[in-house]
TrEMBL record:
Species lineage: Eukaryota, Sar, Alveolata, Apicomplexa, Aconoidasida
Domain of life: Eukaryota
The name this protein goes by in its record: Erythrocyte membrane protein 1
Species this chain originates from: Plasmodium gaboni
SUPFAM superfamilies per the UniProt record, alphabetical: Duffy binding domain-like (SSF140924)
Length: 77
């Protein structure tokens, strides 16, 4: 959610992380719509790899029964 720009939390650590993402993403931030479109596209490009790594790390754990948690609202995760 942080990567996609749809994170609900707006605390100091989250704002710092978003700032680092924006600084290191090699693009010029012009407005919120461009930012959202960039993040959506970037997430689509990398999400398969990110989910693969997360599943591997937590493969022996029983945290979540959902297979497709990307579409579950953040509040319910």
């Amino acid at each position: 959610d942080i990567i996609k720009g749809s994170d609900y939390w707006n605390d100091l650590s989250n704002r710092k992380l978003v700032g680092k993402i924006n600084t290191n993403s090699n693009y010029v931030h012009r407005n919120k719509e461009n930012d959202r479109l960039f993040r959506d596209g970037w997430w689509i490009d990398i999400k398969k790899d990110v989910w693969s790594v997360m599943r591997w790390v937590f493969k022996d754990k029983n945290f979540c029964k959902e297979n497709d948690i990307e579409n579950v609202p953040q509040f319910f995760r």
